[in-house]
Amino acid sequence: MRFLEALIITLVVLLACNSAFSIAQGLSLSAHAIRMRSLQAGITPDTEDKTKDSEERSLYKLLKVQWWISAKKSDEYVKQALKLDELDDAALKEHKNLKYFTYFQDEKRHNLLSKAFRRNLPTFEVWKKLNLDKITSRDQLKDIYQAADFRAYSRYVKMFDNNVVGLVNGGFGAVPRVMIARGATDPEITGRTILMAREGRSDNVAKVLLGLTEADDPFRGLSGAKLIQHQDYKYFELF
């Protein structure tokens, strides 16, 4: 009975959470669909019961993942709870619970980026929130390009920059308080500059995003001696 109650709670949570609903669609099947396949393929009642049990367990794990996210549990805590903490890379890739851990990480990062964008935070603040401030040299960037945290940072940079591009082009949007946060590190600004170049940003947009603008007009880029003498000109050269 307790399990059925937990299942009901799971369904309620899933209905309230669109993100959880999308993965639930991939993990669960309707009872009607199961019955139809049972008739078509000659599945026995025992097999059908096992299928339902498996789906119920999947939904229950989704409920736990949602709770871990809301409770702000750490990656280490969730890995241990899913019995993934003592596995090597090969065993981890094959484990049935890996999809739940991946979902947990993706949702946690998605929530972080959404909140940061609503608050209009500079990219360096997100860099720190993703624990990328452990990178102390731009030479280390090549080692993290495919890391989940850097990919999340890349998504935020694109969101932030797209907003600024709209403003530069005369559109509407929330004007960032600062383009380059005080204390931003060389690896962060370098990584951001590389991402700007990959997106094909114009020279003027790059100047705005790097804070290379006139004091009285945050959307008018510097030129000539003013540009070359700016302390962050090296990043524009990199761009």
UniProtKB/TrEMBL annotation:
Q: What is this protein called?
A: Secreted RxLR effector peptide protein
Please provide the record's keywords in A-Z order.
Signal
Q: What is the native source organism of this protein? A: Phytophthora infestans
Signal peptide residues are 1-26
Q: Which superkingdom, per the lineage?
A: Eukaryota
